[in-house]
Protein 1
Amino acid sequence: MKNSDTIRYIGFLITLIFIFQGCSTIKTNKMNDQLVRITGVAQNGKAGALVKTNDGKAYYIEGLNAWPLDIHNKQVTVSGKLKTETVDENEMKNEQGEWKAGLVGEIKTIRNAVWKLL
């Protein structure tokens, strides 16, 4: 293989990588694994336990389906690593255009969460 063929081949591979990255409908934030401390109300949602802040933002707690009864609906502080991903609404439709169950938009999840009542 000549040098010019090698350069074209590498260019082709790089182009394919960019095309496939652009096709992904679930995008992760570059700030993932940022340590955070969130204060809000412990609530349960369809996708699991979450903390709802005063400004209306929801942060899901990874691995927790529901808050214990003694914590549910009370003020808590949760610390952990923040994971943010964005799910496009088209990802939530099947081949017939019917909606699947799931969350759409920006989803914030706290991993390795530790919480305490305020």
Note: The radius of gyration is 20 Å.
Protein 2
Amino acid sequence: MAGWLAEVQAERLRAEGDRVSAMPHIPLSKDDARGSVLEVRAIASVLVEADLDLKADLVSAELGVQVRYDPFERVISATAGPCTKVRVGGGT
């Protein structure tokens, strides 16, 4: 069973690599890059003014980041996990 699982995993990784290499590379234009930066800047300015609970939900649920503060030790710890709702490059 373990051998079959390893074979299937290797086949899946090869298929994903083939899919990525088959996608055409279209360079980002200067205007597209500028527009993306302005969009991010607009999102950041909205988040600065957002409610703290909303910010916490966005960071933990959308980005998979967990931040904890220990007031006795005065230590902040952060962990990052996989994003569950955000996909780069669209759906498959």
Note: Residues 51-84 form one domain.
